[in-house]
Amino acid sequence: MNRKELVQKISDQLGMKKCETDEFVVEALSTIKQALIDGERVQLVGFGTFEVHRWAARRYRNPQTMEYVTNEARNLPIFKPGKAFKELVN
Fold first, then answer.
1. Contact, 47 vs 29, CB < 8 A?
2. Best exposed site among 5, 16, 33, 85 by fewest CB in 10 Å?
3. The domain containing residue 19 runs over which residues?
4. pLDDT (0 to 100) of residue 64
5. What distance in Å separates the CA atoms of residue 23 and residue 73, rounded to the nearest whole number?
6. Number of compact structural domains in the chain
7. What dihedral angle (degrees, nearest 10) is formed by the CA atoms of 84, 85, 86, 90?
8. Residues 4 and 32 both lie in one domain
9. Quick one: three-class SS letters along 4-71?
10. CA distances from 37 to 82, 86, 89 (A)
11. Each residue of 20-76: pLDDT tens digit?
12. Widest Cα–Cα separation across the chain
């Protein structure tokens, strides 16, 4: 399902105009993104948690050239599904 299909389903279920629903979806996603950028954790009970995981810099060896390479530390957004969501999917 892409964003357009998501907007269509939500607008059908709630009886809203598609343009209003699209604005809501865009704003909800941008709010989650901004919270993660600010280092906050977004927890949606019954659905899951969005948070940022810090990966430390590490050194590894390139198997083709046998040279050591270091990648930089980075932040990566992750999603942990909630218990109810996991049970529903299974």
1. no
2. 5
3. 1-40
4. 92
5. 35
6. 2
7. 100
8. yes
9. HHHHHHHHHHHCCCHHHHHHHHHHHHHHHHHHHHCCCCEEECCCEEEEEEEECCEEEECCCCCCEEEE
10. 22, 26, 29
11. 999 999 999 999 999 999 999 999 999 999 999 999 999 999 899 999 999 899 999
12. 61
pLDDT of 45 reads: 93
Does one domain contain both 5 and 48?
A: no
Identity of residue 49: T
72: domain CATH number is 4.10.520.10
The answer to whether residues 36 and 12 belong to one domain is: yes
Region 81-88: what's the mean pLDDT? 93
Using a 10 angstrom Cβ sphere, with 0-12 exposed, 13-18 middle and 19 or more buried, the burial of residue 7 is buried
pTM exceeding 0.85: no
